[in-house]
Amino acid sequence: MNALDLLQLQKKTFQIRNIPSLSDRISRLSRLEQLLKENTNEIIQAIELDFRGRGYEVTYISDILSVILHIRYIKSKLRKWITPFKRPSDFPFNLTGAQSYIVYEPLGVVGIISAFNSPVSTTFTGTADAFAAGNSVIIKPSDLVPSFSDLIKRLLDQYFAKEEIGIIEGGVEETLQFASLPFDHLMFTGSSETAKQIASLASKNLTPLLLELGGKTPVIILDDNDLEALSEKIVKARLLNAGQICLSPDYILAPRFQIPSLVEHLIKSAEKIESSGRYIPTSIISKKHFDRIQSLIEEARFHAKQVIESNSSLNKNQSEFFIPFTLVIEPSKNLRISNEEIFGPVLPIIPYDTIEEIINTINEGKKPLAVYIFGNHKKNINAIINRTSSGGVCVNDFFLQAGQMNLPVGGVGSSGYGRFRGDKSGFITFSNAKSVFKQGFLKKITTALIPPMSKDLWGIIKFYGG
Fold this sequence. Notes:
By secondary structure, the protein is of the alpha/beta class. 43% of the residues lie in helices and 17% in strands. It has a 7-stranded mixed sheet, with helices on both faces. It has a 6-stranded mixed sheet with strand order 5-4-3-6-7-15, sandwiched between helices. Strands 1-2-16 form a 3-stranded antiparallel sheet. Helix 2 (22-38) packs antiparallel against helix 5 (119-132) and helix 9 (227-239) packs across helix 10. The mean pLDDT is 94.
């Protein structure tokens, strides 16, 4: 079944069956959780095959477990979410028996274009939100993870009817065709450049979008840190999935006088981690992506103060798409590595002398998906939070702003728009907030308020309006 036929099937089914009940939604969410739990090993093996190497822990913690926990949270809150939300009526209607409330009704069919880097999370987090809101879903996984895509297609047939959720496979052409279909909502996770094409195609149908993108996410190191302890955290965060995470730190802003010590600690931490028996490196997903990152590094060798790679024994016996942890010290502003999202285990380090320089550096660029701040000086931390714009901020840690069940996830500007996951944000995104007003005792006299009206009533209204 092609994408258009599948969309028409789901739209027709939605029109006939209308709004799914609470039990229907819970059933879909439970079956999705069951799919992930009962097939965890098979899913991880498929993703490892697509990456030609990726650790079990990486896929389970960052990709599978986060979705399972999200589903459980939704199920615990869903009864409350779908209950009509009472709102106060304005004077004088509040004194005459009028009722005002909001009904969250499903939009219909939601399309989800997911990414290669976290294929489970980028496919099924949005799916869970859409199911909660009562929608059916059609997913389009990345063509860079064909083993995962084939497995999910088989599993969806086992756990769901096509009227509930379907899958379309294929490459770039199929993705663009998918985006051109008249979905009731479309979610895309990927690069900003591809997002422009997706948005252009979706606009022809006035399809609302949720764009989960990325960008240049800074790590701000204030001058009151234990650099040795912090360096291990930074390296582990950047090496996670070989830096192929939209929320991964993309560059460091550090006090100028601390850079020599910081570089030393970062490289030592990287070599220790990469040489440990527990570390299983992740390959760059494809030759195209590998060559792009290598070209960023090679350009920087000629236009940065220094380029330093970790020198662990691991680097000598890796697949052809392995890139060691790499630091680029003081790259010039016009370099590609200073302007493009790297999406690999490479970290530029940019010196600063004042807090104003930090704020100006961030504000001169495009708005990032996240900002990470490390330090204890509350005044400086609050200045950065309040005077820069980003999708989210995490202080003294990585990623956890996107892992809180009560905080929404999303970007701003070129890092995306729309919110999902945290609290009921995804439920609201994939719902129509329908306003309902039920008139009270005044229903017999409000006809007189519609022009033309009497001079006396007109005088009263003008007086009331000031």
